[in-house]
Sequence to fold (286 residues):
Amino acid sequence: MCDQEQLAAMGATVSRRTFAKLGALATLAACTAPDEATAQASLSESYPRFDAPGGIMDAYFAHPAEGKHPAVIVWPDIAGRRDAFLAMGRRLAHEGYAALVLNPYYRDAEAPQFDDFDDWRTQGGMEKVAPWREKLTAPNVMETAKAVVAWLDKQGAVDTAKGVGTQGYCMGGPFTVWTAAAAPERVKAAASFHGAALVGDDATSPIKMLGQTRASYLFAIARNDDRTAPGDKDALKAAAAEAGRPAEIEVYPADHGWTVDDSPAFDPDAADKAWDRLLNLYKTAL
Fold:
């Protein structure tokens, strides 16, 4: 989770990270805009709204323009559904998946709540989302997940003969296990990237619920999270083995947030490796 100590460290790097990113985006726009337009034409993109427990889910849905494809549910990090995660959805669609990027805070506010991670960090995001996050209990997330899977299974672009995948970031990491437990007949792959609170003593702790799922797992752990809780990786390995669930568990040489491209901790090389492992999980499990 993004705690206050991590936020302080982020503040030291975010301005120059933003400056560098703006330069990179300008170069990308100048050099590759025609190719991007061609690629986008091969996708179908929409912003569906549908009933979910406690409110109306507002999501982003991207998939290849033709055919049926395995569905993937994306749970964003603490800063919510925003452009960085829409880009992930498009990337998944280009890989042949029907990707639904959720608004985890749909009970309280439509997305986006923040323009990017820096907006969340500098505009009191931690305090703003605190009451919203209180509603993201295991039972509530699981009820939402059931509604999401049911909605996906009604979409013409979704291949219901294939399993559903789910991936989550930061606070969304545990949500992937809860999603797999909510719909074990459908969710066959779950990936957590720098996930928070995966290990605990409560009955609804993700580590305690692996046995209630039928999914294969990827737990990609940040090195600074590992320093804070060095026993978690071994506990997850033991729990997955006991539950009979395939699990790839690795500590990456990058900090919390490294997979999200608007995070000050973004590490392109480590993010590419994590993405490759994600695609391997989906290829083998869905």
Q: What stands out?
A: The mean pLDDT is 91.
